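Colleagues,

Please find the record for the two-part complex below.
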Amino acid sequence: MTYTWCGRAAAAGETVWLALSDGGGPYAEAAEAARREIQRGGASAEIATWQQFLAPGRAPPPLVIAIGSGAYAGLAESDLRAPLLATLLPRAAFERHAERAGRQGRTATAVYLDQPPARLLDLLRLTLPERRRIGVLYGPESRQWAPALRQASAERGVTLAVAEMAAGAGLFPLLQDLIDGSDMLLAMPDPHVFNSLTVQNILTATYRRRIPLIGFSPAYVKAGALLAVYSTPSQVGAQAGEIARAWLAGRPLPAPQSPREFSIGVNGDVARSLGIAFAPDATEKWIEQLRLKERAP
Amino acid sequence: MRLSLGLRGRMLLATILPAIVVALTLAAILLDRQYRSLDEAMQARVRADALQLASTAEFGVFAGNREVLQALVRATLSGDGDVLAVSIYDPAGVPLAASGKSTLAQAPAISVGEQVFQQGDATVAVVPILRSRLPVDDFYSDAGGLDSAGQVDGYVVFEMSRRRLDEERNRQLLIGVAIAVVGCFFAAWLALSLARGVIRPILHIGDVVDRIGQGDTTARVARDAAAVMPGLEEGINHMAQRVGFTQDFLKQQIDTATAELRQRKDEAERANSAKSRFVAAASHDLRQPLHALGLFVSQLGQLPLQPEVKPLVRHIDSSVQSLQDLLESLLDSSRIDAGLVTAKPADFPLADLFARLALEYNGPAEEKGLELRVRYRDLWLRTDPRLLERILMNFIGNALRYTARGGVLLACRKHGDKATIQVWDTGVGIPPGQLQAIFSEYVQLSNPERNHAKGLGLGLSICDRLARLLGLAQGVRSVPGRGSVFWIEVPLGIAGETEAAPISEVTTSSQIEGTVVVIDGDERAATGMAGLIAGWGCRVIGAASSLEAIARCEEAGLVPDLVITDTLLPSGEDGVAAGLVLRRRYGVVPVLVLSGDVDDHLLANAARRHFALLVKPVRPGKLRAIVQQMMAPDPPPPSES
C-alpha cells in the first residue's frame, strides 16, 4: 500500500469528479454532501457514474472521489491517472482493490463506513453496562478487526468471546457455542457471515438465548438488531469532501480513516422484548457522550 | 325401430326429456365443479400446511436440531387427524425427522422444486425449506459478488389423507344426485301438468270426434278444451250440428217412407190373409160334397154295370180323385200362407211313416200300372212327422204323376246324425235349368196344356215351404228321360217304444165282415159312406148322432165293430164325444174320426182316446184299408198324423 503524502497547490476552477457506483439513492446523497464541501473551497465538482467518466477523450481531473465500492473497484481497475479517494464502502472492499489502485503511481485513500472498534465498545459500555461478555463472529473479511477489538476490550475491561468461521463451514455450530458464552453478539461487516440469508436465523438464535445483536447499519435495526451505530452517506460524503477541499488547498491526502460522524439506531420493540429500557432521548445522549470521549485528547 | 307412442307419450317425451337432460347436465356440471374445487382446496390446504411447516422448521433445519424437528413433525401429525405422514429431509435427501405412516416408497426428488401430487389415498406436497431473506445487504456490508440466491436448507414432505375429501365428494355426489332427482321430478311434474293442459283438450276433441263417428251427433267440444284450439272446437261443433241436422232430416224421411211401406205391406198382408182365409173356407166347404162324391163314385164302381158305362165311371172316379188332390193342395197352400201351420217336432219311427205312405199310395200306383217299392229302415227321426209326411206325399204323388213306366222307390239312407229320405222315379226327368223352378208355385214342366189330372203345380212349392218351416234341406237330382230323385234330409231322433207294427200288406180284394156305425150329419156323405162300406161286405148303421146310433143298433140287435164319426155333428156333439158315448155303451170299440179340418185340440183329444183320425176327403181306397185294419181282431190305431 503506498500513500503519497505530498500536497499540491490549489488551482481555482479545477473540477473534481464525483464518480458514483450507480446514479441516485445513498450514492447521490453522499456525492451531494461532498460537492457542498468542495464548493466551499472554491472548486467545483462533477457528479456522474464512474462509467460515464471513463468515456474516451476526457481530460483527467485533479482528483476522483469514488462513491461506493462499485465505483471504486471500476476506477481502480482503469487506466485513469488521478488520485483516488474512496468512500461509502467497507474497509474490506477498499482493501480488496487497494493494491491495484496503488499501482501505476496512483495515490488512493478512503473514508470507510466501518466504525472504529473503540467507538463500538464505548457505545456498548454506555448502552448495556451489565452485559460484559461480547461475542464476535469473524469471517474472512472481518477478521482484520480482531487485534483492534481485542485491544479495545482489554482497555475497557470487557470479555470478548470470539469465533471465526472458515470458508464453507457450518455457521450454526459456531454461533451456538459463541452465544452460549456471551451476553450480546456484535456483528462486524462480512458478507460471508452476515448477509440477507443468514440474518434471520442468527437473529432467531440470539433471540432464543435472549441476547441482543448489535448491527452495523439501519437495515439491521429494522431486521431485529437491538441497536446499530453507523455513518450515513451524507456524513461520510461530507468527510470525503473535506479531505478533497484540503487536498485542493495543498494539504496531502490522509491515510484511510474511519468516519468521524455517526448515528445510532435503536429497535424499541426488540428492546422491550428483551426487557431492556432506554430513555426516549437516549441516542442523542450516547452520541454526545461518545463525541466528547473521542475528542478528548 | 320406431316406438309407437300415443299422443300423450310423445308429448311427455318431448317435454320431460329436455327437462331431465337439463337437470342431469346441471347436476353433472355442478358436481364436476364441486369436485374440482374440492381437489384444488385439498391441494391448496396441503401446500399451505407444508409451507407453514417449512417455515416453522427453517430454524430447526438451520440449527440441525433433529429433536426439535421431530417434535415439530409429531405435533403437526397429531394436530390434524387428516395428516398421514410428515417428514423433513436435508438437501441431500437424508431424513431429519419423520412421523406417521408414509405412503411413499422413497424420498421424492427435491430438484424439481415445489410439487403437489396424489399418491394412492393421499395428497402429497413436497416443499423446499428456503432461507428467510432479510434485506440487509447494502453498501454497509458489500457482498462483493457473493451468491445471494435463495438457499434451500431441506424440504418438507407432507402427506394428507384424502379420506375426508372422498367423504365430502360422496356427500356432494349424494347431494348432486338428490338435486338431480328432485330436479327431474320437478321437471317431470311441470312437463306433465303442461302436457296435460295440451293433451287433455286434444284427447277430449278426439273423444268427441269418435262419438260423432259412432252417431252421437249431440256430442260437443267443451269450452275449456276450446281455449287451446278455438278454431278446431268451432269447426267440430259446427260439423256435429250439421251432421245432426242432416241425420234428423233423413230419419224423418225414412220414417215417413217406412210408415207408408208398412201400411202398404199390412194392406197387402191383410189382403193375402183374407184371400187365404177365403180359400181355406171355400176348400173346407168343398170337402164335404167332394168327400160324398168320391164315396158315391166308388160305390158306383162296385155295382154290376153295363160294359159301356164302366169306362165312364172310371173317368168320373179319376176326375173326382184329381179334384180331391187339387183341393188338398189348395188347402195346404192356403193354410201355410195363413200361418196356421206350426212345426211340432217329435221322435218317431221311420217305418211307421213309410207304412202309412205305402198304404196311401199302393192303390194309386197299382191303378197306374206302376210298382211302388218301399225300403224299410229301422230308424227314428226327429221332426214334425205330420208335415214330413205331407212333403213325402207330395214327392210320391209327383213321382207317380210323371212316371208312365217302371216304378217309384221310397228309400232312406243314414249318414252321420242325419237320414236322407229319397223318392226315386223312372219318369220323364227334369232339364237341369229347371231344377230350381219346379219348387215355385204353379209350375208344371210337362203340362203346358194344364191338364188338371196332373195337379195345380202347388205340390213342390208346398214341399219347399214346409221344408223351410221345418228347417230341413231338400232337393232334386234328375236325368231327363231317365228319371228323378227327390230327397229331404232329416235329423235322427232318439229311439223310443214302437207303438204299432208297420202296416202289413193290405189285400183290397177280400170282403170285410162286421158292423160299422157311421155317424155323420151330412146326409149325402153319410149315404155315400154307408153305401161304400156296405159294398165291402159290412153291415152299416147310419145315424146323425151318438144316441141315434145306439138306438139303431138296439133296434137291429147289433153291436158295432167300428164307429166312424164326423167331427161336427148337427146336434152340436163333436166326433170324439160321440165315440166316447158309444164306447160307454159297447165297451172298447175302435173309433175312426173324420174331420173336415186339422184341429190340434181335436187331434190331441182323439189321440188320448186312441181314436183314429182321417181328414176329409178320404179316398175310398185308403178308407177301406183303414176300416179293414181297424176291424181286424187286434187293430192298431192308424192315424193320418
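Chain B has a mean pLDDT of 81.

Comments are welcome before we finalize the supplementary table.
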